[in-house]
Request: fold
Amino acid sequence: MTSTHQDKICIITGATAGIGKEAASNLASMGFTLGLVGRNPDKISSTLSEIQFATGNEHVTFFQADLSLMEDVRRLAVEIQSKFDKIDVLLNNAGAYISEFGKTREGFENTFALNHLSYFLLTDLLLDTLKATPNSRIVNVASNAHLNTHLDFDNLQGFNGYKGWPAYCKSKLCNIMFTYELARRLEGSSTTANCLHPGFVKTNFGNNNKRSVRMSLGAAKALGAISIKKGAETSIYLASSDEVEGVNGKYFDKCKTKDSSTQSYVIEDQQRLWNISEQLLS
Ligand SMILES: NC(=O)c1ccc[n+]([C@@H]2O[C@H](COP(=O)([O-])OP(=O)(O)OC[C@H]3O[C@@H](n4cnc5c(N)ncnc54)[C@H](OP(=O)(O)O)[C@@H]3O)[C@@H](O)[C@H]2O)c1
Reply:
């Protein structure tokens, strides 16, 4: 185990599978102390043993939370802050494509709650700790899926006509607009916020849906998806590389900055999304 990041603490959501788990394992190898978030106790236990065995890093703690429930996000933030007195990196990664409409017991649409509100709320609740940690980083896993969509503020949660894939794409646009607004609010501090597209990656992504959706996504993955190892590279880069120290408010793909969609840069829309999210969570 190398020791270049020995004193750094990184929180990763969605660390029991796919990109999040791969990033966790890599960052553990670099010496990071990890606070990992999972929802399933069996997967938490097996992932913890796997990462510790593979990397020899014992400084790995798991927290259990269903991130589509804001009461769980609030409890999680308290648990993280009672375990760690600083946070160097927050990697908001947990997300899903949910093909059918559904609401959480708190009344939020499932995709919007998990993919957007959990990033927004967890970051907000950990922000004071992040800002008190010199050169800390917030990294939000978004997607190029945002490129061909637009936020409709009158139907943000799809209550008035839900379609699974468009809802997913919009939630990923939310990740980017949230990042840009957050980055502006962080100016003058040493904390940065960036977001990324990981590529089309051979993970469990979409496997929570009905058979027909799993089959078509599975066929597309077999034809064109990259490995999980490759898909985690930009997340690992943004969490750990010296090259991005001080870089703030950018969208990355293959470890390089790139432009996101036109609407993502509209400051008025970023602020509107921020204000609505705040109101929904108040
Ligand atoms: N795969 C792609 O092609 C692709 C492309 C662009 C962007 N992305 C983004 O990459 C991120 C990671 O996705 P992935 O491809 O690695 O998918 P994945 O293999 O399905 O992993 C998703 C992770 O999120 C966790 N998760 C899902 N719902 C949760 C909930 N309600 N509460 C807590 N944790 C939850 C999962 O937990 P379990 O292990 O319990 O299921 C898992 O650890 C997502 O934000 C996704 O939008 C993926």
Notes: The longest strand covers residues 33-38.
